[in-house]
Amino acid sequence: MGRPVDVAATAARRRALLKRIGRGTVLIPAGHERNIEQDYVQDNDFRQDNTFYYFTELETQDAVLMMTARGPDSIETVLFLPPRTPSQERWTGMRMGPDTTAVRLSGITTVLPIDSLEARARAAVQPVYAPHPAPNVQNLTPIVDSLRVVKDADEVSRLRRAVDISVAGHIAAMRAARPGMYEYQIEAALEDGFRSNGADRLGYPSIVGSGPNSTTLHYDVNRRKTENGDLVVVDAAAEWGQYTADVTRTFPVNGKFTPRQKAIYDLVLGAQQAAFDAVRPGITMRELDGIARKYMREHSGNLCGERTCDDREYFNHGLGHPIGMDVHDVGIGRPLEPGMVITLEPGIYLQAEKLGVRIEDDVLVTAKGGEWLSGGAPRTTDAIEKLMAGR
Asked: Which architecture does CATH list for 7-148?
C-alpha cells in the first residue's frame, strides 16, 4: 500500500497549484504497471509518476487525481480509483480501492470509482491542464516543475533519509573492497548496504569504475577485475520515498592512496570545498562551477602537465545539479533558493594514467549558505584510509 502520506504536505501542494492556476481543472494520471514479461525492469514492476506522487504521495496504480479551482475560495479535489479485484490481488497483493480506507490514507475526502471520471471530465471547468498536453488541454508540467524546485519539509526529510541510506552503502563498499575483487562484487556490497538500510530501489544504475574505468563518467558495466593500486570511482545512491540521493566517492582498492593519487584527490576535494563555501541564495550553479574551476586552476601546478586541471580535457562535466524525485531534478539554471537540494561533484580524469577522481555530495541550500547532507561518507584521504584500515 506504500509509505504513509504526509496529508498536510500534499494538501498544501495542491492548494499552491490551484492558486497558481486561479480557475480551471487539473487531471493527473497515476503510473501504470510495467509488463515484466516484455520490459527490462531494473527494480520492480512499478514506480509512481512523479507528478501524481507530488500531489498525493500514493503508490496506487491506474488512478487519476482531479483538482478543480473555481476561484481562490472554491477548490475541489477528487481521487478516482479502479475497483479492487480480489482474484487479481492474489497475484499482486492488496490494492487501494474507492472506499473509506483510501480517504483515510490519502487525506482526500472525495474518492470515487474510476468509471465516474468521464462524466466529471465532460463537465470540467475550463481551461483543463494535464501533464501531457493534447488538443484543448494546457501543459501542466512547467507549472508543477516550478513548484517542485524548492523542497518542503517533507521532501527534505525524504531526501535526508535517501542520503543516509546511500552513505551507508558507500561505507559498506569501502569496507568490502580488496584488490582482485570484481567491480560487481563491490557493487553487491554497496547495494546490500542500500537495501539492508531500507532503500526502495536504486536512484540510478550504480557506477563502480576501477582503474581505466574510473575515467569514464557513466560507466556502469561493472565487470572488470580490480588490480592492486587502482582507484575506484563509485557513483551510486538509493531512492527512498520516491526521492533519490546522488553520491560519489573515490577510494584506493587496497586502502592506501599513492602520493600521486592523493595529490589529484586533494585538488578535487579543495575545488568542491571552495564551491560549497560559496553556496548561498541567489548564486547560480554556473557561478559555483566557475569558482570550483578557478580553485583547480590556481592550485594545479603541474599536476596535469602543461595544462591546468580545470581544462575541459580533464574536468569535462558540470559541477552539479538539483536532486529530488529525479536524480537530475527540476530547477537547473535557476538561482539557488533556501530549500533547494543540489550536488557538488568536481572531478579530474586522466585517461593516460587510468586515474579518475570524482567526489560528489548532496547539499541543502539554507538562508545562511549550505548544509552537507552526505558528509557521513568519508571525504578526505585520511578518513577514507582510516575506514578502510579498520576493515
From this structure: 3-Layer(aba) Sandwich (3.40)
